């Protein structure tokens, strides 16, 4: 797309409000564009509308007027969550009007180099960790995107000596054309959001746009253990810095000795980095990483590789990798009650994320799971249920499917919580029933394996209600 200032006097549609819509509308209005913001929610559910109208920006709530998109429109900037089948987007495509997300606008505003991080799981933890690593090295990171400050707002504030550390979803990346991060990281790929993308190929293609505009002077950080990530290598023009838990790399960040079945008895593992000259640098022992779980070892490898690509000295990595204790709703310790430890992993919105969480504990687990039904049968969880889950308390649209998977794993204690109009009461009931099944030394883990939208408006809401219920035991 053009630079925002090139839209002076031109008509631009911003589709969808919320934080990102608010900021991008302000940016384009300040650049002189004739901005119309449209949201299908009723006016009373659009608190941002008044602020925009006070600034002289036209706002239309309550639906998408038939004449909203017309041949005179120069650009449509969509909220990432709005599907491409929405009528205004379909019409824009028919008229040849560019459709982008906020990421594209921010790209043209930002003077700082960008680090883009995406993947099916681990984005927020890794992005936050990278911010800590760069801050410890005095590199002035601004953490933005899917977390923290809206990207356009952060991009406007960034100076040349800052680093923008940006968490990006497939929804955001699908609507990009010129986005060009200095360092781009793909953490992993698993089947998710297929209701939005239609199929796995579109999901992978959207994630891959992270690398589309990189040059040989840039760096692509890839999970070498993920076959989809490795399959992208022939299409990437930038320098590749891999990370691995399972392979000793000629160049890259990896665990030594690797996590292989024949080496499982070896307890002393270390994270190391082998540079382009073949020199191996020790970073820290795996057991010193500040977050539990093998998947957080993978997140630590990714964060270290990204930081190295951005110029952080290897000698400065160990401290932040040790000191960082995690992000809310991601394997977050809540409290211990009557000898039982309670953990909030509400961000586990797919089966892969829950399976990773289930491998993080040696103690017996009472699992609370269930939520929005996106068509999965959850049978991939069976071996993980067999590995350490002693009981399951299930709720939401998927509770019967999860119960079937639990039965396949041989679980005897399976509780299906009755649905009700009060979602908070349903989750509180699940917590109470899990507490009754748990014994001292056990873990009660909320790790839903599903999105929250059948009962809650976000995984954050679900996690906070879980924590409140735990504190009320």
The CATH superfamily title of the largest domain: Mur-like, catalytic domain
Strand content range? 15-25%
Radius of gyration: 23 Å
Taking the sheet with the most strands, its summary is:
9 strands, mixed
Q: What is the average of the pLDDT values?
A: 93
Family: Belongs to the MurCDEF family.
EC number: 6.3.2.9
Function: Cell wall formation. Catalyzes the addition of glutamate to the nucleotide precursor UDP-N-acetylmuramoyl-L-alanine (UMA).
Subcellular location: Cytoplasm
Overview of this protein structure:
The protein has helices at 18-30, 49-54, 87-95, 102-109, 123-136, 151-157, 170-174, 194-197, 200-208, 227-231, 294-310, 318-323, 351-358, 382-388, 399-408, 423-437, 459-471; strands spanning 11-15, 34-39, 58-61, 73-78, 99-100, 114-118, 141-145, 163-167, 183-186, 219-223, 239-244, 252-256, 270-274, 280-285, 332-337, 340-344, 365-369, 389-394, 413-416, 443-446. Helix 16 packs across helix 17 (459-471). The longest helix has 17 residues, at 294-310. The protein has a nine-stranded mixed beta sheet with strand order 7-8-6-9-10-11-12-13-14, with helices on both faces. Strands 15-16-20-17-18-19 form a six-stranded mixed beta sheet, sandwiched between helices. It folds into three domains: 4-100, NAD(P)-binding Rossmann-like Domain (Rossmann fold, 3-Layer(aba) Sandwich); 104-323, UDP-N-acetylmuramoyl-L-alanine:D-glutamate ligase (3-Layer(aba) Sandwich), CATH 3.40.1190.10; 332-471, Alpha-Beta Complex (Protein-Tyrosine Phosphatase, Chain A). It has 473 residues and is of the alpha/beta class. The termini are far apart. 33% of the residues lie in helices and 21% in strands. The protein is globular and about 65 Å long. Helix 15 links the parallel strand 18 (389-394) and strand 19. The chain contains 17 helices and 20 strands. Residues 117-307 form the Mur ligase central domain. It is an enzyme of class 6 (ligase). Its EC number is 6.3.2.9. InterPro entries: Mur-like_cat_sf, Mur_ligase_C, Mur_ligase_C_dom_sf, Mur_ligase_cen, MurD. Pathway: Cell wall biogenesis; peptidoglycan biosynthesis.
């Amino acid at each position: 797309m053009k630079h925002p200032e090139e839209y002076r006097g031109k008509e631009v549609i911003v589709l969808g409000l919320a934080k990102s819509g608010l900021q991008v509308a302000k940016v384009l209005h300040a650049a002189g564009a004739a901005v119309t913001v449209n949201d299908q929610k009723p006016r009373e559910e659009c608190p941002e509308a008044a602020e925009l109208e006070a600034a002289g920006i036209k706002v239309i709530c309550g639906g998408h007027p038939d004449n909203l998109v017309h041949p005179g429109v120069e650009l449509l900037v969509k909220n990432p969550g709005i599907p491409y089948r929405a009528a205004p987007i379909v019409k824009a495509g028919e008229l040849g009007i560019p459709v982008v997300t906020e990421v594209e606008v921010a790209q043209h505003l930002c003077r700082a180099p960008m680090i883009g991080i995406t993947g099916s799981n681990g984005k927020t933890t890794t992005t936050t960790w990278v911010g800590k690593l760069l801050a410890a090295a005095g590199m002035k990171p601004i953490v933005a995107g899917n977390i923290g400050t809206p990207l356009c707002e952060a991009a406007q504030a960034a100076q040349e000596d800052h680093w923008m550390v940006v968490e990006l979803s497939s929804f955001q990346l699908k609507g990009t054309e010129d986005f060009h991060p200095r360092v781009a990281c793909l953490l992993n790929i698993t089947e998710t959001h297929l209701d939005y993308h239609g199929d796995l190929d579109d999901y992978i293609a959207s994630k891959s746009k992270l690398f589309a505009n990189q040059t040989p002077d840039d760096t692509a950080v890839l999970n070498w253990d993920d076959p989809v990530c490795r399959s992208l290598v022939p299409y990437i023009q930038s320098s590749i810095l891999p990370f691995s838990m399972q392979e000793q790399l000629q160049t890259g960040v990896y665990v030594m000795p690797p996590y292989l079945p024949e080496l499982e008895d070896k307890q002393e593992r270390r994270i190391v980095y082998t540079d382009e000259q073949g020199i191996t640098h020790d970073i820290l022992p795996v057991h010193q990483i500040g977050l539990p779980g093998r998947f957080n070892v993978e997140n630590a490898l990714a964060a270290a590789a990204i930081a190295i690509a951005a110029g952080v000295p290897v000698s400065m990595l160990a401290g932040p990798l040790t000191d960082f204790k995690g992000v809310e709703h991601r394997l977050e310790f809540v409290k211990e009650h009557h000898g039982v430890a309670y953990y909030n992993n509400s961000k586990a919105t797919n089966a892969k994320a829950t399976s990773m969480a289930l491998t993080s504990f040696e103690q017996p687990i009472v699992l609370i799971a269930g939520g929005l039904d996106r068509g999965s049968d959850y049978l991939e969880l069976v071996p993980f249920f067999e590995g350490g889950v002693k009981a399951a308390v299930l709720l939401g649209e998927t509770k019967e499917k999860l119960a079937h998977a639990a039965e396949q794993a041989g679980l005897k204690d399976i509780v299906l919580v009755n649905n009700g109009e009060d979602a908070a009461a349903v989750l509180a009931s699940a917590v109470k029933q899990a507490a009754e099944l748990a014994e001292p030394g056990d873990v009660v883990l909320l790790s839903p394996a599903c999105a929250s939208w059948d009962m809650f408006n976000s995984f954050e809401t679900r996690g906070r209600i879980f924590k409140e219920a735990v504190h009320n035991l």
